[in-house]
C-alpha cells in the first residue's frame, strides 16, 4: 500500500513527456497556493451558508483530487487517472457554480484551480497518449 502513495519516481521519470511539461519544482508552490485559495473559498461559503450543498460538492471534488495521485503515480494508470481528473474537472465546475450563488469571491478563488486542473487534464491526456501500455 505504501507504493500507492509514493511521490513521482523512476516510473514517472521514464515516461515520454511533451516539451511543455512543467518542471517538477513548480508543482509544490502551485498546489500550495491553490489549496490556500480553495480553503478560503470554502470558508467564505461556510460562513454564509453553513453545511449546505455547495460544501458537499466541495468535499466531493476534494476527494476526487485526492484520488488522482494514487491512481496516476501509485498504480501507474494514466488512463484511469484521466477518467478521475475529468470527473474532478466537472466537480470543480459544479462547485464553482454552487459557490457563485453564495459568494462571488469564493467562486473567483476557485478559477485558478479550475484553470490548473484544465491544464493538468491535457497533460494527463498527453502523457497517456505518449506512453501507451
Can you describe what's shown?
The structure is a single chain. With 133 residues, the protein is mostly helical. The protein has one domain. Helix content is 77%, strand content 0%. The chain contains 5 helices and no strands. The protein has helices at residues 10-14, 27-49, 53-74, 78-102, 104-130. The chain is elongated and about 45 Å long. The two termini are 22 Å apart.
Characterize this entry briefly.
With 133 residues, the chain is mainly alpha-helical. The chain has helices at 10-14, 27-49, 53-74, 78-102, 104-130.
Q: What distinguishing features does this structure have?
A:
single chain; 133 residues; mainly alpha; elongated; disordered N terminus
Share of residues in strands: under 5%
H/E series: HHHHH
Which radius of gyration do the C-alpha atoms yield?
A: 16 Å
**pLDDT average, as an integer?**
93
The biggest beta sheet reads: none
- Tally of DSSP helical segments: 5
- The total domain count is 1
Contiguous uncertain segments of 5+ residues: 1-5
Principal-axis shape equals elongated
Helix content: over 70%
The CA-CA distance between the termini, in Å, is 22 Å
Which structural class do you get from the secondary structure elements?
mainly alpha
- The strand count comes to 0
Amino acid at each position: 500500500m505504501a507504493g500507492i502513495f509514493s511521490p513521482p519516481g523512476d516510473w514517472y521519470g521514464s515516461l515520454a513527456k511533451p516539451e511543455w511539461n512543467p518542471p517538477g519544482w513548480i508543482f509544490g508552490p502551485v498546489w500550495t497556493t491553490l489549496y490556500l485559495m480553495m480553503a478560503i473559498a470554502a470558508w467564505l461559503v461556510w460562513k454564509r451558508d453553513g453545511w449546505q450543498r455547495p460544501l458537499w460538492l466541495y468535499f466531493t471534488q476534494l476527494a476526487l483530487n485526492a484520488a488522482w495521485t494514487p491512481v496516476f503515480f501509485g498504480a501507474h494508470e494514466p488512463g484511469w487517472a484521466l477518467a478521475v481528473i475529468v470527473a474532478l474537472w466537472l466537480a470543480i465546475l459544479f462547485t464553482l457554480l454552487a459557490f457563485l450563488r453564495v459568494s462571488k469571491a469564493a467562486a473567483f478563488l476557485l478559477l485558478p484551480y479550475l484553470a490548473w486542473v484544465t491544464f493538468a487534464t491535457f497533460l494527463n491526456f498527453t502523457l497517456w497518449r505518449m506512453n501507451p501500455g
